[in-house]
From TrEMBL:
GO terms for biological process: spore germination. Keywords: Membrane, Transmembrane, Transmembrane helix. GO terms for cellular component: membrane. Belongs to the GerABKA family. InterPro entries: Spore_Ger, UPF0353/GerABKA_families. The chain crosses the membrane at residues 302-324, 396-413, 425-448. This is Spore germination protein.
Length: 498
């Protein structure tokens, strides 16, 4: 046994119980939820120990843990005629471990404190420079329910929640294979947030996985509070308007991504699952596409592609045609447009800018307001503002229709962050259309095409399947959705030496 007069080492558990208690009390000073329970054991209860935990993080019943710990010593008590000393306790636990519950034995004081902060129960025993740690978090989380952002008619109706272990369990329940790997680490000196990333061994590209691990290894000192904090660390172009990762709250979507060779990231305390790399064609797919019949799913895909074009180009196209190229508009329609714009004091660009500003303002107000009144305010506000703008001769009816169709089209896209990209790109295109007409639109489209052609995500081209062109893949699962019987196959398992 070590000399009990040795000085206390900063990161080691002291052999003296009083020193350990003093350090705990100093570290958790002014923490009202710290619970420190002293214990005595031995034939005459002459030996001391104490358990410490945070009752706001730990489930109740810590007393049973202490009793269970010493119940493990029953064979030892029988052999010693009930004479139990700290020397025998330390020798017993270091040699045989603990069997009653799944604990850990640590000699690092810093790690013991981290276990307390993670919702564990830590037991200090006088005369022993180790501690016994039980992981027993007791934070209440919401039950698994339907997804809020990805509701479907057919298919599973469960979603991930804020508990990391529950989310991993949901994923493993759907993908029962030893090839599904989950690796975890903790990030942040203050938040100490657990981050887990998963992949399907043999399906994921080794180079993509290596690039991902290189990027994710740089965040171990950062305070990561949500999955979205990781997006800018994983994307290649930070200032690109196009999203380079996907998000989901559906376990079936995450498992489908794993089967396709994607990497998923989960963070404790947030229900969102990050999927990377996110490629352009994948932002047009939704989970319900694979639960519907082929013909309907293919029609919906065409509708989404049309919505993408409308959300990106309709306002700028209207500005270019009405300002620079009226000869391209049918005569009857042109006369109707001129009639509605007769007393409008603004050019088409300013008119579109005002109405787009009002629409974006209403959209943000609807999101921030409480749910019961948010949708009502958005609908009523859009009707009132639109009608008032027409009567006040600030905007023409055709412009209200154009802006409304543009907003509706952006909502038709299954991935919200792609809609945000279109909202950003819409205004530069409107400016180019107002200054150079159709030629300005060509410049804008060319710039967008050039940008996405050069964009790569974890080494994978953003326009994969489109550039280089893969007609089979486009017909199979982009422009069309092939029959499910052609899609149901397991990913190829790569040899371990690759």
């Amino acid at each position: 046994m070590e000399d009990r007069n040795l000085p206390v080492t900063s990161d080691l558990v002291s052999i003296r119980l009083t020193d350990n208690r003093q350090r705990i009390e100093e570290l958790f000073q002014h923490c009202h939820d710290l619970k420190l329970q002293p214990w005595n054991y031995g034939s005459g209860l002459e030996h001391s120990a104490f358990s410490v935990y945070l009752d706001t993080l730990t489930d109740s019943g810590q007393e049973s843990y202490m009793k269970a710990t010493f119940r493990d010593l029953s064979p030892l008590l029988a052999g010693l005629d009930a004479r139990l000393t700290p020397e025998e306790v330390s020798r017993y636990f270091e040699g045989r471990g603990i069997t009653t519950h799944p604990p850990s034995v640590l000699n690092s004081f810093e790690r013991a404190v981290k276990q307390i902060l993670r919702g564990g129960i830590v037991i200090f025993i006088d005369g022993w420079d180790h501690v016994i740690c039980y992981e027993m978090p007791g934070i209440q989380t919401r039950a698994v329910s339907e997804p809020v952002t990805e509701s479907v008619v057919f298919g599973p109706h469960n979603s991930t929640i804020e508990d990391l272990h529950t989310n991993i369990g949901l994923l493993r329940n759907l993908l029962r294979t030893t090839r599904l790997k989950f690796e975890s680490f903790y990030s942040g000196a203050e938040s100490d947030r657990q981050i887990v990333y998963g992949y399907l061994e043999g399906a994921v590209d080794p180079q993509t996985l290596a690039d991902f691990k290189t990027k994710i290894s740089r965040i171990d000192k950062l305070e990561i509070l949500d999955t979205s904090y990781l997006e800018e660390w994983l994307e290649e172009s930070t200032f690109s308007p196009f999203p380079q990762v996907r998000y989901t709250e559906r376990p079936d979507v995450a498992n489908a991504a794993l089967l396709e060779g994607k990497i998923i990231v989960l963070v404790q305390g947030t229900p969102s699952i990050l999927i990377c790399p996110g490629l352009f064609v994948e932002f047009f797919t939704a989970s319900e596409d694979y639960y519907q019949r082929t013909i309907y799913a293919s029609l919906v895909r065409w509708l989404r592609i049309a919505a993408f074009v409308i959300a990106l180009t309709l306002p700028s196209l209207y500005i270019a045609l009405s300002t620079f190229h009226p000869e391209l508009i049918p005569t009857v329609l042109l006369l109707a447009i001129l009639d509605t714009r007769e007393k409008i004091p603004f050019p088409a660009f300013v008119e579109a800018l005002i109405m787009e500003f009002f629409f974006e303002l209403l959209r943000e107000a609807g999101i921030r307001l409480p749910r019961p009144i948010g949708s009502a305010v958005s609908i009523v506000g859009a009707l009132v503002v639109g009608q008032a703008a027409i009567q006040a001769k600030i905007s023409s009816p055709i412009m209200v229709i154009v802006v409304a169709l543009t907003g509706i089209a952006s909502f038709a896209l299954p991935q919200y962050n792609l809609g945000i990209a279109l909202r950003i790109l819409r205004f530069p295109l409107m400016l180019l259309a107002a200054t150079l007409g159709g030629f300005g639109l060509m410049i804008g489209y060319f710039w967008i095409l050039l940008h996405v052609s050069k964009l790569r995500v974890l080494g994978v081209p953003y326009l994969s399947s489109l550039m280089p062109l893969q007609p089979g893949q486009l017909v199979r699962d982009f422009i069309f959705r092939a029959p499910v019987k052609l899609l149901m196959r397991s990913p190829r398992k790569r040899p371990y030496h690759e």
